[in-house]
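Deviation from plan, reported transparently: alpha-D-glucopyranuronic acid complex.
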Amino acid sequence: MTGTKTFLTIPLLFVSLFAAIAQPSGQQWDSIRKVTTADHQHMMTLLGISSLRPGVDGMNSDAPNAANYDEAKANPYPLLPDPLRFRNGKRVKSAKAWWKKRRSEIVEEFEREVYGRVPEGIPPVDWVVVSETHDTTGSFPVMTRTLEGRVRDSSVPGVTVDMQLTLTVPANAVRPVPVIMELGFVWPAGMRQQPPAGGQPSWQEQVLERGWAFAVMLPYSVQADHGAGLRQGIIGLMNRGGPRKPDDWGALRAWAWGASRALDYFETDPLTDASRVGIEGLSRFGKAALVAMAFDTRFAIGLISSSGAGGAKLYRRNAGEIVENLAADGEYHWMAGNFLKYAGPLTWDDLPVDSHELIALCAPRPVFISSGDKGDAWVDARGMFMAAVAAGPVYRLLGAEGLETDEYPALGEGLTGGEVAFRQHTGGHTSGPNWPVFLEYAAGYFDK
Ligand code: GCU
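Because the crystal trials were delayed, the predicted structure below was used instead.
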């Protein structure tokens, strides 16, 4: 059993952030942990699994199960599934065959085994404008609209969803404008996001400077970030307050679903150009941003920051965080229940897909895979780079360009010549230093 122990290995920073969002007390946290452990156990029982292999410890390099950072041991399964080979073994030879059949095979496998399926019959989201203010962001005059996306089902009492979205448009914009949407954390009162180093403008100012709008969608308003929350939020609403089935969606898919509903809203707003919407997320929200890009082809571009395991990093890599961490009770709620099998009776190599194919689902749209250096080893930058490289054949088949090199770039060197981009920056676990590079890259598509 990896249960409670792994639950406690969620970095403390995030535990304290969660606590501040929903304001649970210490006692409420005990109950969240208990319900989570029971739900995790319930899923194992459904799957007929009696035990899971334990995850690695990313906090203590002396621990017997310390995370591996030795490249010589990092590739136990070097052979990746071929995105350009049909399930029946035949080769995919044309863009037409990709769109007609191969893409949906990969989608099906990610839905069934990795992220789960979005259920049928979700009630429509009712977008309500809560407020509109005219103000400034830095030195830019802006209009900010605060929106609430309400989802209700009167036959499921006690479970409601109020998605939180803000949209900030430059006051003097030539409309309709592109939008860069962040999947945002809620910062606890008194705690602010670190201002960018060296007096650099914030990412929001950098976006406004280009005459574009920025938006922030709060994933936690769609789905809570723990197993105990799975019977609430949009996942709980669709299960009428009951538990998940093994192929039901997890939080990453639910957060991505929320991002798509925000995009629906941009389609209706004359201020915004829904054909030029970029999505950005960091860490767990980097994973969600990539899932959103992959499953919803309307997203035009993505900045996928430090997404690591469950995001752009190859599942077949033994470096930093691994499959077993994702399957433990601190993180399994991000994934489909079926994913647990790959940390139990099955191995990583049994996964029918790997993350290079998630990146390939974004093709031919541009996607920027981003990572930090020191302090960000847990996300396995090299494993994300390898996935980005291996998505290349699909991009090329569709007439676009992949990374076009398998040589790992120097720190700070941006590979931004094709539709798959990669850059590892100094400065750790953040999107910060890659914002200017990403926005320049996006301008190549948005300002044409
Ligand atoms: C943990 C988790 C990562 C995740 C990160 C975050 O470190 O293991 O998978 O990306 O939290 O969201 O900050």
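The pocket of alpha-D-glucopyranuronic acid is lined by residues 11, 14, 283-284, 308-309, 321, 325, 378 (CB under 6 Å). We consider this an acceptable substitute for the interim report.
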